Amino acid sequence: MITPLWSSRCGVKLQGDRLDKKLEQWQKIAISACEQCGRNSVPLVRPVMSLENWLAEPTNELKLTLHPRAAYSVGTLPAPINGVRLVIGPEGGLSDDEIALTEQYHFQEMLLGPRVLRTETAALTAITALQCRFGDLS
User: Fold this and answer.
1) 63: buried, middle or exposed (CB in 10 Å: 19+, 13-18, 0-12)?
2) Which residues does residue 109 pair with via DSSP β-bridges, in sequence order?
């Protein structure tokens, strides 16, 4: 599942029809990407929710926060048993309060290397790195 999140540093906050159209567009992109690569399970793009509500959802997944000063890299993460739940902040990153909130909900910080990537690049890079380490890319 892919869940867009509201956080304190979100630059754009769409509402109403514009938000609905954006969610439809993202779902179509997910479908097209899965068709292109032969994946038979399309991730659902969920409605936008607050970061705190998303963090509080019960899960057995390995909980990760992408953070440029984290102790874990993809190569040092423990193997997930029930999948991965990954939060990636907006441009400018998560605020200190939001980082503290991720820690309160037992998310572990993970970094991708010495560079700070744009949000859209970070998401693709993180998912690819996790797929290379734990998934079907080799």
Assistant:
1) middle
2) 65
Residue 117's nearest CA partner among 88, 87, 84 is 88
* Band of residue 14 on the pLDDT scale cut at 50, 70, 90: confident
* Average pLDDT taken over every residue of the chain: 89
Q: Is 94 helix (H, G, I), strand (E, B) or coil?
A: coil
Q: Which residues contact 48 (CB under 8 A, 6 or more apart)?
A: 3, 4, 5, 6, 19, 23
3-class secondary structure, 73: strand
Predicted TM-score (pTM) of the model is 0.85
Query: Which CATH number goes with the domain that contains 53?
Result: 3.40.1280.10
Q: What is the pLDDT of residues 56-68, one digit of tens each?
A: 999 999 999 998 8
- First vs last C-alpha separation in the chain: 23
Tell me how far the alpha carbon of residue 9 is from its chain's centroid: 16
Strand, coil or helix: 108: strand
pLDDT at 10: 80
Rounded CA separation 71/102 (Å): 15
The number of distinct structural domains making up the chain is: 1
Domain that holds residue 60: 5-134
